[in-house]
UniProtKB/TrEMBL annotation:
Gene3D superfamilies, per the entry: Arginyl tRNA synthetase N-terminal domain, HUPs, Isoleucyl-tRNA Synthetase, Domain 1
PROSITE patterns, sorted: AA_TRNA_LIGASE_I (PS00178)
Protein's name in the database: Arginine--tRNA ligase
Organism encoding this protein: Agarivorans aestuarii
GO molecular function ontology, one term from the record: arginine-tRNA ligase activity
Length: 584
């Protein structure tokens, strides 16, 4: 709705320029907001106040000229000028009903596909090989996945890029230790990832204390980077153990990543020598104390001199920056990306900006292809510190998910006694995973947030269980009506204030979807769904559906409104990767 009113106002500004009421070069940022008091209409703009000075007119006088020049539209029933020059818009209920009808008959709830689909690469999750996923991986994984689902829903071609940490000097010691483990008769395929964590620490301890072992480990690093078949086979075993564990976590969380989406650091290793040579040839990289460095005027060191970014060490080794330069280059030149989104911890911002600065200077990715860092804050405990175990260790993601399911099972056993044992297990899993994800997704990703079991599993407030219950409640109403809503021919009539308010909230779904896609902010969808559920609860209280005194036509209209609300809740939660339940 807001966008449609903005379009009408943009046309009006053009007309007023042609009439020389507004100066030709005047390009206002047209803002349309919802009114707080319905007595003052549905939407309002302060355009007249913004444009009064350039026009040399009194704001109320200009407001009247804007109203007089608004294009005809079935969207607007009437306008009114208020206060110093605000323009209030009252929407036409017939138009509103037609939009709701279109949503009801559309498989996508009338969310239009984009006119020009883009190839969008989304970098998210990115755990490390030989280490279990921990809570620090949760935000990137589920925020990125919600945005990916939304972009695909709009018709874009999305390339999921799980940039795992599968390369580096640590693999020398891991291969050396794995060699000894297999020599003692243990097959690598029998090693669980939890054991691999211990294995990693053992490898590091051996490396630090045993010089013979350390020398063998360093040799294996060189061999691995040179393509040695034996070392590559051992490295592959370590990677495969990790990927199997990760996939089990993704599947449990209902995250759409698969093994086919893995694009680890190792993928770009063959490009690194070429990148360094090219940067030297272009004069962007120079030798400095034996290392190869790119000096960036945009960043200064403590002495005020251009900051040097090392892309190759004295010993010939490469750095994360080198890999990220090659990675961006590959995504544009090989994957044909029109847009690249990185869901990476906010602490990596300067590192990414420096890498992309070099990428732009080298001409690897043109300016018109956005490289976007969608940073996020940290998950905190109730003490306001990074979320840890009671002993102060890092919380493993599998342990967090296991506790969530156990807590949900207790709640379901208490609240859903009419479900059989199998149904309770299904419900508990959906509630648990939904609660963990929604507690994160509902917060603005740029901020830290407090992880709180009681709040996230509550059936009231802005939580996944509340939204899942709202959906289930609507499905229960439809079942009790014993009417096939899909075959109802009765038009949707909007007569009561609560019906109108629900309809207005329903047609904002498209705006919510596009906001998530454009801004990479899933909390905008969460806020919308919470407001929609609240609008439905108000509607249900004010507008009876199943009572005997309700006329048949009114019952049909309200059932269709209820069914459409369930449809939008289901679709919106699906875009967040959260399951709904027919019964709970």
């Amino acid at each position: 709705m807001k966008e449609l009113i903005q379009q009408l106002l943009e046309q009006t500004v053009t007309a007023l320029k042609q009439q020389q009421v507004l100066p030709e070069g005047f390009e206002p940022r047209i803002q349309v907001d919802r009114t707080k008091d319905k007595a003052h209409g549905d939407l309002a703009t302060n355009l007249a106040l913004m444009a009064a000075k350039p026009a040399g007119k009194n704001p109320r006088e200009l407001a009247q000229l804007i109203v007089d020049n608004l294009p005809e539209s079935t969207l607007v029933e009437k306008t009114a000028i208020a206060g110093p020059g605000f323009i209030n818009f009252y929407l036409n209920n017939d138009w509103l009903a037609s939009q709701v009808e279109a949503m009801a008959s559309s498989a996508t709830a009338n969310v239009k596909k984009v006119e020009k689909a883009q190839t969008i690469v989304v970098d998210y999750s990115a755990p490390n090989v030989a280490k279990e996923m921990h809570v620090g991986h949760l935000r990137s994984t589920i925020i990125g996945d919600a945005v990916v689902r939304t972009l695909e829903f709009l018709g874009h071609k999305v390339v999921r890029a799980n940039h795992i940490g599968d390369w580096g000097t640590q693999f020398g010691m891991l291969i050396a230790n794995l060699e000894e483990v297999e020599a003692r008769g243990t097959d690598a395929g029998d090693i669980e990832l939890a054991d691999l964590e211990v294995f990693y620490r053992e490898s590091k301890a051996r490396y630090d204390s045993d010089e013979v072992f350390a020398e063998r480990a360093r040799n294996y690093v060189v061999k691995l980077q040179s393509g040695d078949e034996y070392c590559n086979t051992m490295w592959r075993k370590l990677v495969d153990i990790t990927l199997s564990h990760n996939q089990a976590v993704y599947d449990r969380l209902n995250v759409s990543l698969t093994k086919n989406d893995v694009m680890g650091e190792s993928m770009y290793n063959p490009m690194l020598n070429e990148v360094v040579a090219d940067l030297k040839q272009q004069g962007l990289a120079v030798e400095d104390n034996g290392a190869t460095v790119v000096f960036l005027d945009e960043y200064k060191n403590k002495d005020g001199d251009p900051m040097g970014v090392i892309i190759q060490k004295k010993d010939g080794g490469f750095l994360y920056t080198t890999t990220d330069i090659a990675c961006a280059k590959y995504r544009y030149q090989n994957l044909n990306a029109d847009r690249v989104l990185y869901f990476i911890d906010s602490r990596q911002h300067q590192h990414l900006m420096q890498a992309w600065n070099i990428v732009r200077k080298a001409g690897y990715v043109p300016e018109e292809v956005p490289l976007e860092h969608h940073a996020f804050g940290m998950m905190l405990g109730k003490d306001g510190r990074p979320f840890k175990t009671r002993s102060g260790g890092t919380v493993k993601l599998v342990d967090l998910l296991e506790e969530a399911e156990q807590r949900a099972q207790t709640i379901v056993a208490e609240k859903s006694r009419d479900l059989d044992a199998e149904q309770q297990v299904v419900a508990a899993k959906a509630i648990a995973m939904g609660a963990v994800k929604y507690a994160d997704l509902s917060k603005n990703r740029t901020t830290d947030y407090i992880f709180d079991w009681e709040n996230m599993l509550a059936f009231n407030g802005n939580t996944a269980p509340y939204l899942q219950y709202a959906y289930t409640r609507i499905q229960s109403i439809i079942r009790r009506s014993e009417i096939d809503v899909a075959n109802l021919q009765q038009a949707i009539n909007l007569e009561q204030d609560a019906e109108i308010a629900l309809a207005q909230k329903l047609i904002q779904f498209s705006d919510a979807v596009h906001n998530v896609a454009n801004k990479g902010m899933p909390h905008m969808m969460c806020n919308y769904l919470y407001e929609l559920a609240g609008a439905f609860m108000t509607f249900y209280e004010a507008c009876p559906i199943l009572k005997d005194e309700v006329a048949a036509d009114t019952k049909s209209s309200r059932l269709r409104l209820a069914s459409l609300t369930a449809k939008v809740l289901d679709q919106g939660l699906s875009l967040l990767g959260i399951e709904t339940l027919e019964r709970m």
